[in-house]
Amino acid sequence: MIRNVVVGRLRPGVALAAVEPALQAIVALRPEGLIDARVGVDRRLRAESWDFAITSDFVSEQAYRSYDEDPEHNRVRQELFGPLCEEIARVQFEA
After folding, report:
1. Is the overall model pTM greater than 0.85, yes or no?
2. What CATH class is the domain 2-94?
């Protein structure tokens, strides 16, 4: 199984609530090979945290790569997250 973890920082002045539609759009995607997807905004329990996180589990590397190249996924990234985010970090690992 491949776990994809994404964390993001919003641009200065962007409210946490503004990213909710983008997070829900990610959860609504149901690509082949997706096992589970979870999203959330930071609870501000520690200083200097990132603003939101996404975790997605895929049955294989091939399933992840297909999702990463999916046109709708890329539209969500560009149109919904792009205008809000200052920085995004990603990591994929075998779980």
Report:
1. yes
2. alpha beta
What averages of pLDDT result for each successive group of 10 residues across the chain (95 residues)? 98 97 97 98 94 98 98 98 98 97
Measured distance CA(60)–CA(65) in Å, rounded: 9
Cβ atoms of 84 and 14 closer than 8 Å: yes
Contact 42, 16 (CB under 8 A): yes
Cα dihedral sign for 84, 89, 93, 95? negative
Backbone φ and ψ of 25, nearest 5°: -65, -35
Q: Where are the domains of the chain?
A: 2-94
In the chain, the amino acid numbered 60 is: S
